[in-house]
Amino acid sequence: MDLTDYVPVVPDFPVPGVGFRDITPLLAAPEAFRASMDELERRCGAHTFDAIAAFDARGFLWAAPLADRTAKPLIPIRKSGKLPREAAVETYSSEYAEVGVEIHADAVAPGDRILLVDDVIATGESMAAGVRLVEGLGGTVVACAALLEIGALAGRDRLEGHRVVSLLGPL
To answer: Which CATH number fits domain 48-168: 3.40.50.2020, 3.90.1170.50, 3.40.50.360, 3.40.630.30?
Structure first.
């Protein structure tokens, strides 16, 4: 199954000149979503990890089923101000705005091996912020995984020294 058939480009969204990769058709097709999960599980299975950390909110779509399939804990990386306990915080510049993300300060212990999961690696800034959060708490990022990677934005370059698992792309 060619998953790119389920991720069309929407021109000029959210601003003129941007070709937005729409994942909603993939989510609406159970066989395509299942195929993406099967492939993500296969590729991430090559890495030994203790937990999965995922980005609010679309990263949760792939991370939660993967955590269930692999029987690993799921650690949410949320937008700033959303976690109820003490949190480590990082900021980054997205394609559209300055963003703060956080993780519970006790979510990662020194030596924990963490798989980071998001839906898209675009500029790589959010994934790099996740790397800083995990490493700042003493963990090790074993891989940065996503459904798709947008090659023109060179996000992989911001993740130098870390393995990147991308099911689609760089597109």
So the answer is: 3.40.50.2020
- pLDDT (tens digit per residue) in 78-111: 999 999 999 999 999 876 779 899 999 999 999 9
Closest by CA position to 52, among listed 142, 169, 151: 142
- Per-residue pLDDT, averaged over 146-166, amounts to 95
30-49 core/surface letters (b: 16 or more CB in 10 A; e: else)? eebbebbbebbeeebeeeeb
Q: Please state the φ and ψ torsions of residue 157, each to the nearest 5 degrees.
A: -65, -30
pLDDT at 95: 66
- Average pLDDT over the chain, rounded to whole? 96
Q: Taking the model in full, what pTM does it have?
A: 0.95
